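Review form for a predicted model. The reviewer records the input and the model, then writes brief findings.
Reviewer: anonymous (R2)
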Amino acid sequence: MSDSSRRTFVQASAGLAALSQFPRPALAAFGGAATVTIPKDRMSTLTRWPRYGPEEKTALHALIEENRYYNALPQFEKEWQQFTKAPYVKAHMNGSSALTSMYFALDLPPGSEIMVPSYTFFSTCLAMRFFGYVPIFIDIHPKTACFDLDDARKKLTPRTKAVVAMHSWGLPCEMDKIGGWCKEKGLILLEDSCHAHGASMQGKMMGTWGAMGVYSFQASKLMPSVEGGVGMYQSRQHYERAAAFGHYEDPPKFPKDSPVRAYEGTGFGMKFRMHPFAAAVARVQLRELQANNALAIGNIRKLNTRLTQLPGLFEPLVRADQNRVYYHANMLFLDEQKAGFKRGQLLKALQAEGVRATMWDYPEQHKLKIYSEAKWWHHAPVIPPTMPGNAHVNATHIFLPLLHGPAEDVIDQYVQAFEKIWARKSEVSKL
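Model under review:
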């Protein structure tokens, strides 16, 4: 056992021993006093998202005064390119339009199949149908909620042309393994990075591992501009097709040898331009992104390091060469057998103690109506009878709020509430 593993074991053992040695007050669910006494207005301030301030207001006012609105788009694109090191970048109206443009840029024959997680937002799957592509639904790994390569290996067909990896809740997929398999099989690797602003693996930003990648800047995202998106492209060919699909003004900007330049005045028929106000806000948010991420991650580390000493409570697995971020919430997994009570019982007990604990089953795309109707597709998608990874993550997770400010007292009280519940697990099991 390494020194660090030994220290972790000793700390965990000491923490568990403390639970049994010292009496805990009565559970709030059974009439005791609630552990968390943080005022509601302070919790609302700590958890509020999006967070805008004087810098965003100044940027918007300056854009209005300048009266040359569309300059904000190339300015943002240049800054995003510098941040991510992507060869080519294009701002889009939202993440969904960025995905649609990405699928158009593939230029694959109708009937091509694209592997995509069922555990994702609908645009990741549905946008492909406009070009005659068909999704192959891939499961997620139960310990990460990310793309399950083993499941993908089983579902490869002669019509499979591409793979979409979605970085769930800000945790990078294992892009080296997925990318290696794609290269072996001659598949195009794509990324849905809409949860992963600032996340990286082996020093490489998410969205730059695949041939193309997309981000969303919708209001709930880690870099919110209320609405907005961006596409990232490794090749000029993909960039020009994706840009011209939704930006009719772009073809004349391309080199003279570009096959897309001839479509000046029309592009390829859509208008997916990012709103200049969104671009102005995104520029400010980008400058603040790393600091905002670091603050939330620091609070999570202080909290989770203590909570995961409790039997049956786990974090999603993160490799040493991955730098994850946290979108939407701090997700933990509960092993009900090891904990000694069910998830619903835990949530009741936590909420009674004043902890903002929730759960939300991420919609599984393969179960939704539109995929079962052949009329929408070149050929009917195969609906898998089971998705055990999806089911496991949806059945075992809990969400705790992200804290966007100094929160030592909140963290201490949350830990005390959890420890109190674990110390009285026999009572919790009766809720």
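Findings: The longest helix spans residues 276-307.
Further findings: The chain has two domains: 3-50+289-428, 54-285.
Recommendation: see findings above.
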